[in-house]
Automatic annotation (TrEMBL):
Species, as recorded: Planctomyces bekefii
Domain Cation-transporting P-type ATPase N-terminal: residue ranges: 30-103
UniProt cross-references to NCBIfam families, sorted A to Z: ATPase_P-type (TIGR01494)
UniProt xrefs under Gene3D superfamilies: Calcium-transporting ATPase, cytoplasmic transduction domain A, Calcium-transporting ATPase, transmembrane domain
Highest taxon listed in the record's lineage: Bacteria
GO function term, MF aspect, one: ATP hydrolysis activity
Protein's UniProt name: Cation-transporting P-type ATPase N-terminal domain-containing protein
InterPro entries associated with the record: ATPase_P-typ_cation-transptr_N, ATPase_P-typ_TM_dom_sf, ATPase_P-typ_transduc_dom_A_sf, ATPase_P-type_domA, P_typ_ATPase
Residue spans crossing the bilayer: 78-98, 104-123
GO-annotated cellular components: membrane
Length: 251
């Protein structure tokens, strides 16, 4: 546990420039506003956690706890991003003007510059994707959960809504969770907000009227990390249903 996760690019920008995803926001805001006992009831679980049988049923229904957008970009998408670069667009315009006015030498030089620039971009992006894939293949992420009253570690991909997880300093938050017990808990949300300073989280919501999901103090988000303290939390959303996943849609 405690390893960083790799999120889609421009996630911070999406928070600044896009409206929060309604379904994810409403789900987390609703959970934040509940009393502790009601949190367990809402997620149809208890402080002893889910049974193995119930967890398996929910896994089949909800799917694995993975981000479908956390994949290699693909050649076509990388190519489009490279071509839509403002410099490439400018050079393409100048090439068109050069050839139309008979300045073939300048047009040829700028065409070579475009090919070189786009080619280098494709190579860099491909290498970055390969490096990220190798890194993720080397990391085996697990989460500490309570199942049938027993503390066990399971792959993060096997987490389901209603699971009860425990968090400690250095851990990555494995899903969107509602904190039900916190002790001096501080979480770093830089993967979402770009802010390096940790924020304190509580087992009772202290900011219920904010209207901004990321400011909820009883919710910890997938991919953020525990800077200090410890907590017990109930999983509210996993995989593509999480707040970070919803923010990254359309990037």
């Amino acid at each position: 546990m405690g390893h960083p996760t790799i999120f889609p690019k421009r996630l911070f920008d999406s928070i600044l420039h896009k409206s929060p995803p309604r379904d994810a926001s409403e789900q987390l805001s609703q959970a934040a506003g509940l009393e502790l006992v009601a949190v367990y009831e809402h997620m149809k679980t208890c402080d002893a956690g889910l049974s193995a049988e119930e967890a398996q049923k929910r896994l089949l229904r909800c799917g694995p706890n993975v981000l479908t957008t956390d994949q290699q970009s693909g050649f076509f998408r990388i190519f489009i991003h490279a071509v839509l670069n403002p410099l490439v667009i400018l050079l393409t315009t100048l090439v068109t003007v050069s050839f139309s006015t008979g300045d073939y030498r300048a047009g040829t030089v700028m065409t070579a510059m475009i090919i070189l620039g786009v080619g280098l971009k494709l190579i860099q992006e491909a290498k970055a994707d390969q490096a990220a894939a190798k890194l993720k293949a080397m990391i085996s992420l697990t989460a500490a959960v309570i199942r049938s009253g027993q503390h066990v570690e399971i792959p993060i991909s096997q987490l389901v809504p209603g699971d009860v997880v425990t968090l400690a300093a250095g851990d990555m938050v494995p899903a969107d969770v509602r904190i039900v017990l916190a002790k001096d808990l501080h979480v770093t949300q830089s993967s979402l907000t770009g802010e390096s300073l940790p924020v304190e989280k509580f087992d009772t919501e202290t900011n219920p009227t904010s209207g901004v999901t990321i400011e909820l103090t009883s919710i910890a988000f997938l991919g953020t990390s525990v800077e200090s303290g410890s907590a017990t939390a109930v999983v509210i959303a996993t995989g593509g249903q999480t707040y970070p996943a919803a923010l990254s849609v359309g990037e």
